[in-house]
Prior knowledge:
The structure holds two protein chains of two kinds. By secondary structure, chain A is mostly beta strands. Chain A has four helices and 27 strands.
Amino acid sequence: YVLQGPKWDKTDLTWSLVNWTMEDAPQIRRALTEALSVWAHSSKLTFREVRSDQADIQVLFARGDHGDGYKFDGPGMVLAHAFYPGVGRGGDAHFDADEKWHFTRGERGDSTNFLGVAVHEFGHSLGLGHSSDQNAIMYPWYHDNEVDINLPADDRNAIQQLYGSKDKTWGPFKPPTRPKTPPTTTTTTTTTTRRPLVYYPQNRHNEPYDPRRRYPYNNNPHQRDRKLPTTTTYRPRTDSPPHPTRTWYPPPQPTKPKKLKPDTCHTTYDAISIIRREIFIFRGQFLWRIGDHGLYPGYPTYTHRLWAELPKNFSKVDAVYENKDRKIVFFIGRYYYVFDSVTLVSGYPQPLTSLGLPQSLTHIDAAFVWGYNNRTYLTSGTLYWRLDEDTGRVELDYPRDMSIWRGIGYNIDAAFKYTNGKTYFFKGYGYWEFNDDLMEVAHPRPKLSARKWMHCPRLVNEVDEEQT
Amino acid sequence: ANNGKSAVSEDTVYNYLMEFDYLPKSDIETGALRTEEQLKDAIRKLQRFGNIPATGEIDEATQKLIHRPRCGVGDNTRTANFSPDNLQYGHHRMKR
């Protein structure tokens, strides 16, 4: 057996059925209760059904792309998936609504035994990975065996290693003389008949699952804000580029700041990049500069002080990166600016369309060189493109959906490749490190940017998540 | 090249290996080319996990295995990843 990732730090877990068809609801809930009781039977775990979107394990039926980056594939093949214990989606179990399920024991034919699949998926919800023991519940391929309340040895050993067995006290720190904890009564295992089923308001019409209910960094394509217009009518541009392609000297200095300087330890980032081996972080009209000895004193300062030829009245830098020729490329609105050090290269700014990007694109969210292949990527809203640096245009197979960068979500603020070769994505006050091989975030919850990049101290009552 | 005898294309197998953690998922974006031996190695790992003879070939048993309904969670065979950066067992995936 394989223990995968963390386990729950409690043994009394709650679960909730998110959506259902009216006629199947009682059978589904009965099957889920039974599936969980299989794990409860061999461990100290207890499960309680609640009608809450805060339940530890949320169970839902979905079809195709349902917003978590793991599309279902219609009937057959992939039947379901579940998330390992954790906050947010952690513990949740999703079943492919396109499968032909049967929910009662003994039923056969060409349908799939929901109970057997549910027991398997809940194994993931509790922290078990796949086992290569083909008799195990956690064997990845479906076998149409009748579910027994007694787990196969492989699964039983796994669950008891995580949560202890019913007849033993567990935890290495209990003194041996201490009286045993009374065994958990089975009355707390389920509450299936205690209360009548109340439908969630959002499910009265069997509406699709909306992960935004719980998770601020969701990427549900059905619910997301469509900031990127794809069907709006293009109006020919009548304005001129925001900055003519001429050299300014002396550089124009902003006379009065429109806004106060951002708070170094409490701000979001518009753009971030390594430029000449130093980190540059942009926010509004300001930037920070972080070198080998940390944050330079006197920062944040106006971006204009370094790149005076940027347009005079720009509100923010959308994205920035250093290209393979060591030119610095700024994206501001519908234009991009290429600088040789601090000098604007002749012929710039150019519209985003000159990169092969669509006319409808109003801005770039992030531009970064991915450490895995050293190719340049541009993101905007729900889409991303790969830039061919040789032709200076985006490649033909693009755009693609941002969901391939699993865990990042849509509408990111910034991204960059750090000196350690890893790629980091930023949104709000947080950031994610990206695991290139698994193509997903290295930690599902974003970490505070200020702590890592600005070296801001932890507040007195702030939980240190990394230590936790 | 597929000679028509195989019921599953090499693309299907390649995608399957990436989807279920026998090849790095980053191949989805990079389209990284793998050597014949690397592919065979990944197929062998799949075969061992599936309890069928580890031939390294897309034989009939492998085709059957690939067509079997299964859980969508990856098999997380860490050693299937060829990047040396990936041999860090202390790192756990929190969830899929």
